[in-house]
Design goal:
The complex is a heterotrimer of chains A (356), B (264) and C (177). By secondary structure, chain B is of the alpha/beta class. Chain B has ten helices and nine strands. The longest helix of chain B has 20 residues. The radius of gyration of chain B is 19 Å and the shape is globular. Chain C has 177 residues and is α/β, with parallel strands linked by helices. Chain C contains six helices and six strands, in the order E-H-E-E-E-H-E-E-H-H-H-H. Classes of the chains: A alpha/beta (356), B alpha/beta (264), C alpha/beta (177). The interface between B and C is small, with 5 and 5 residues. Strand 8 of chain A pairs antiparallel with strand 2 of chain C. The complex binds thiamine diphosphate and iron/sulfur cluster (SF4). The site of iron/sulfur cluster has 11 residues of chain B, from helix 9.
Chain lengths: 356, 264, 177
């Protein structure tokens, strides 16, 4: 068993980054994720020799990531909503140039400068490609401090396997709360770098270059087709989700991240009240676990999607069940968090009282 | 909530002009500051609003608030204001001034806002000679986000992202943005002031007024840097913080005019 | 067994750390724990609170609206959270610091002269430990020796403060029969 510690989500993420053999981190302070940079500033460089740099802005940070990722290194940045918005241009370039990297968005309430309280309002931005052009991020949604640790390593693996940026979509609460975590052992940093990385022209090989510019539309279409084929492959192979009590479920609650944990409590309360309620929690938001929703479509009486936003993932749930089951949404916005009791109340209002 | 402290009796008969020792400028809104005790932001807000009142220009002044501790400057300054994205105040001010060239336009920015994320906007507004006033609060730290290193953090100074003291080899040198901007031809007036002592407060107020006078004459970009403090994140009492300004900050950030217009 | 507790007071009264020490102790005891702070500008002088959950089984929602126990260190916290105690639950409050005591009759109301006791101990900072003592005695949610171990962890660099904190815990415990 690995080392057990009581840690804040943001600190656990930072610790996992060090242990995963990350070569470089570039970031800019923003609440509620500043602890990541602060934690790394303490002794990460002394421990593994990794680069830790406070950039002058998120625009700079994401472009530092571009450079270091293009050098074949394990690189990561973190920010929160307004900062992630500033990174979108850079992310689009990174996705197009197929550079592996990991970023975490510890989401706060928006739009605008908004609030620093937890939110899930950046789902569309993360999942549908927040920058310009047809691209996708692989998006993982942790719902515990333990997953802040586990998903860092997983994200690096996925990023490198598919040469694609991976986003950990957390929220302010998961970043700030403390839970018991089991840490994995320190992994060595890389000493060998992929062929495509710009590490200096090898003597007997062609020099390499990294670009996202392909003036000929024919060529650009080819690149797009290649990217789409890769996304298809990711959709086939990398779907992750958790499901509870689907066997006898007449109703389903669904949510991700923190929302899923609140739903779990709501499910328990509803079961005590005698309703047969199950829960689906997507772990990967892209690729979206369509099949599990398909499998309950037409069989359950209703699905209640719970989010800390105005209803974003609910669109993907609806697309997955294709009209075969009634899908409703309940949520809070702008940094407010729905309580389990609120979910229970709305579930009953929507499905039980409405039914009679 | 209740407290037991008896409120002092209000005695209207002593409220006469000859007894007046202090009056809040009418341009400062009746809203208690959220700034920490002893923070320079409060002093600068007050003297700048005094300048606006004395010049009688509250109806022709538009301000831009930054992202930083002074993000809520618009709650206190009784003039029309806009709140800008982090670092973009100079661009927002440019937008306002270009469409309302006969108005007084100012931005109020911290060192992170102006000299880190907003350096590009700052340099280009200055280089275009935008006829605006930039009030630049240099407290050597990120106050709002709780004490990370700023571009202006002194060498060796401890912050949450330079816990062993700023190491200039990996984290760069403290940035003298005023000196950096001064050579640009679009810049009319740059001065560095402080508000840690009464005499300095008076000088800073004069400089702010001077800058607005220049703006009226259309001389171009003016920046008043104010070396300030952050007792909370410097982890000092207000008195210690002002001592630190005197001993450490001013040794590096020298007070005085850095550029003045040739024709006055 | 699961204990869902809320600690609330002014920033600076040590409410976040009392929840944290409890979480540490729970972890040392091999339980599942979760500590969720209020964060942001509240930390500058205003009100602060944290939820600490200690459980024998895995913890679902870290955010809850009804608590088994509320520990309130000031009047606004009593006013705000009295209604959030589950029926039959506990409201422990600093009666030396409060003018309008709680009034519910369907919960256990436990006044503790916390501020008063802290002054007697000559360190107002230990108010939180006095209150935590009462909490522990009432809920039995972790063993006292594990709180001692947690204190050693939290006060790593200030070991000399530990005896006073332990004394404060004991004073708090004496308020609960
Ligand atoms: C795009 C973006 N990145 C980061 C932040 C977080 N942030 C808010 S204020 C601030 C720095 C404030 O420091 P400074 O400008 O020095 O002003 P002070 O608070 O010290 O007055 C940062 C990084 C943000 N709001 N938006
Ligand atoms: S944090 Fe610092 S800059 Fe901000 S209000 Fe407090 S003292 Fe002033």
């Amino acid at each position: 068993m690995g080392e057990i510690k009581l840690m804040k989500g943001n600190e656990a993420l930072a610790e996992a980054m060090i242990r995963a053999g990350c070569d470089a981190y570039f970031g800019y302070p923003i609440t509620p994720q500043s602890e990541v940079l602060e934690y790394l500033s303490k002794d990460a460089t002394q421990r593994t020799g990794m680069v830790v740099l406070q950039a002058e802005s998120e625009v700079a940070a994401i472009n530092m990531i571009y450079g270091a990722a293009g050098s074949g290194r394990r690189v990561m940045t973190t920010s929160s909503s307004p900062g992630i918005s500033l990174m979108q241009e850079g992310l689009s370039y990174i996705a197009s140039a197929e550079l592996p990297c990991v970023l975490a968005n510890v989401v706060r309430g928006g739009p605008g400068l908004g609030t620093i309280q937890p939110s899930q309002a950046d789902y569309f931005q993360a999942v549908k490609g927040g920058g310009h052009g047809d691209y996708r991020l692989i998006v993982l949604a942790p719902s515990s401090v333990q997953e802040m640790v586990d998903f860092v390593r997983l994200s690096f693996d996925l990023a490198e396997k598919y040469r694609n940026p991976v986003m950990i979509l957390a929220d302010g609460a998961i970043g700030q709360m403390m839970e018991k975590v089991e840490l994995f052992d320190q992994m060595p940093r890389k000493t060998e770098f992929p062929d495509w990385a710009t590490t200096g022209k090898p003597k007997d090989k062609e020099r390499r270059y990294i670009t996202s510019l392909h003036i000929q539309p024919e060529k650009m279409e080819e690149i797009n087709k290649h990217l789409q084929a890769k996304y298809k492959q990711i959709e086939d192979a990398e779907v992750r989700y958790e499901a509870f009590n689907l066997e006898d479920a007449e109703y389903i609650l669904t949510g991700y991240g923190l929302g899923a944990r609140i739903c779990r409590k709501a499910m328990d309360i509803l079961r005590e009240k005698g309703y047969k309620v199950g829960l689906i929690r997507p772990i990967t938001l892209f690729p979206f676990p369509k099949k599990v929703y398909e499998s309950v479509a037409g069989k359950v009486k209703g699905i209640l999607d719970v989010e800390m936003n105005a209803g974003q993932m609910v669109e993907d749930v609806k697309l997955s069940v294709c009209g075969k089951t009634r899908v409703e949404y309940y949520g809070r916005m702008g940094g407010m968090i729905p309580s389990p009791e609120e979910i229970v109340e709305n579930f009953e209002k929507l499905f039980i009282k409405g039914e009679a | 909530m209740s407290n037991n402290i008896e409120t002092a009796k209000f005695r209207p008969e002593i409220c006469t002009d000859e007894n007046l020792v202090y009056r809040k400028p009418s341009t400062l809104l009746p809203e208690p500051f959220h700034y920490c005790p002893g923070c320079g932001h409060s002093t600068v807000h007050k003297i700048f609003m005094e300048v606006i009142e004395e010049m009688g220009i509250e109806n022709e002044t538009i301000g831009v608030a930054p992202v930083g501790c002074s993000v809520f400057a618009y709650h206190y300054m009784g003039v029309d204001m806009q709140q800008a994205a982090h670092g973009r105040a100079c661009a927002v001010a440019t937008g306002i001034k270009r469409v309302q060239p006969d108005k007084y336009v100012f931005s109020y920015q911290g060192d992170g806002d102006l000299a880190a994320i907003g350096t590009g906007e700052t340099i280009h507004a200055a280089n275009r000679g935008e006829n605006i006033l930039v009030i630049f609060i240099n407290n050597g730290i990120y106050g709002m986000t709780s004490g990370q290193m700023a571009p202006t953090t002194l060498e060796g100074m401890v912050s949450t992202t330079s816990p062993h003291g700023r190491d200039v080899k990996t984290q760069g040198y403290p940035l003298k943005i005023s000196e950096l901007l001064a050579p640009l031809p679009g810049v009319a007036y740059i001065t560095r002031q402080s508000v840690h002592k009464p005499a300095n407060v008076r000088k800073a107020k004069k400089a702010l007024r001077q800058a607005l006078e220049y703006q009226k004459k259309g001389l171009g970009f003016c920046l008043v840097e104010i070396v300030s403090n952050c007792p909370s994140n410097w982890r000092m009492t207000p008195a210690q913080a002002n001592q630190y300004i005197e001993e450490k900050m001013l040794a590096f950030y020298k007070l005085g005019d850095i550029k003045v217009p040739e024709v006055k | 067994m699961t204990q869902e507790a809320l600690f609330a007071g002014f920033g600076g009264q040590g409410v976040l750390s009392m929840g944290q020490i409890l979480a540490y102790a729970g972890m040392i005891e091999g339980k599942e724990v979760c500590w969720m702070p209020s964060y942001g500008p509240e930390m500058r002088g205003g009100t602060a609170n944290c939820i600490t959950i200690v459980s024998d089984s895995s913890i679902s929602s870290p955010i809850i609206s009804m608590y088994d126990t509320v520990v309130a260190l000031n009047q606004p916290s009593v006013d705000k959270f009295e209604s959030r105690v589950k029926k039959g639950g506990n409201l422990i409050y600093d009666s030396a610091n409060i003018l309008n005591p709680p009034t519910r009759t369907d919960i256990n109301i436990i006044p503790v002269q916390g501020s008063e006791e802290a002054i007697k101990l000559q360190n107002t900072k230990v108010l939180n430990m006095v209150m935590l003592g009462a909490f522990l005695k009432k809920t039995n949610c972790v063993a006292v020796e594990n709180i001692h171990k947690a204190l050693e962890k939290v006060f790593e660099r200030y070991q000399k403060l530990i005896p006073l904190n332990i004394k404060a815990l004991e004073v708090g415990m004496s308020y609960v029969k």
